Each structure stands twice: as structure tokens, then as C-alpha cells.
Amino acid sequence: MESGYTEIIRECKGGRQGAQMAFYDLFAPTLFASAYRLLNNEWEAEEVVQEVLLRVLTNNSLLKDESDDMQRLLKRMTINMSIDHLRQRRIVWEEWNDSLMTQTEESMETDIIRQEHLSQLHTAIAMMPEKDRTVLLLSVVEELSTEEMSKVLGIKPSSVRSQLSRAKQKLIKLMQR
After folding, report:
1. pTM for this entry
2. Which residues are within 8 A (CB) of 13 and not within 5 positions of it... i.e. 6 or more apart?
3. pLDDT tens for residues 90-102?
């Protein structure tokens, strides 16, 4: 695979369209699965995958010579872009939800409390250092195993477990404030 991958990258850097399609075919299924797990929407997941691959293929400096490095970069870009889509979706949903005044007082109170908790959680996660936030989201949102996170992050599984444990403790402390 590595020699075939190297050839694809070399030809992509040369702007060959057939190589770009081979690059797309090589990485799109994995990226789609990641985006779909986060977004739970096929159309949005496909949009994210296409945007990520387009960005990489139009910027030769992002093309990595090692397939594992390329996989990690693409995975990180896909996760970040999927999270951006979720944020945009949440804003639209909250605007629509705010216009619904037919809810009962009890359900409105429950929704307000739930939204406050979610807001606190989002704020706490946003306050975390990027390393902690990334390992936490890969575990909780992406549902990756320790070994998979190790490959994505390029660190030892024992380091992943330590970082995840520390990240969870930091999140708990931030939520208790």
C-alpha cells in the first residue's frame, strides 16, 4: 500500500486528476464514517468529506508523504469541520426552538435547565487545552478505542489513557465551578 500511496501523492502534487480520484477513493470511506458518527446526517457528512479532501488536494503543502500522517491530518480536519457543522446546526435549532411557545411550563423549565447544563458543558470543553479537548472528543464523540486514538494522535496507548483520565478530571473540575 505504501508504494501505491507514494505514487498517488507524487501524481497529486503534479495535479493529475486520476491520482486525485484515487486519493479520494482511498480516504473518503473512513472520513465519511467519522463525519457521519458525529453529524448523524449523510448529506452533511458527505459535504464535510468533500470539503476536507478539496482543501488538501488544492494545497500541496498539506499532502503528507507517509500514509499514517495523512490519515491523522485528514481525520483531525474531518472531526474539526464536523464539530463546526454541529455548532452551526445548534444555532439554527435554538433559533427555531425559541420560536415555539406551545410548550407547557414544566417542559419549558426542563428544557431551560437542560440547555443551561449543555451550555456549561460546551463552555467547559471550550476552556480545556486543545490536547485535552481533542482526546476527550475522540473518546466520547468519535468513540475511538485507546489503540485507535493512539494511532490518530501518534502517541503510545498508555499516554492516551493518561491524557484521557486527566482530561476527564479537568472537565469535572470545570463543571463544578
Report:
1. 0.52
2. 60, 63
3. 654 454 455 555 5
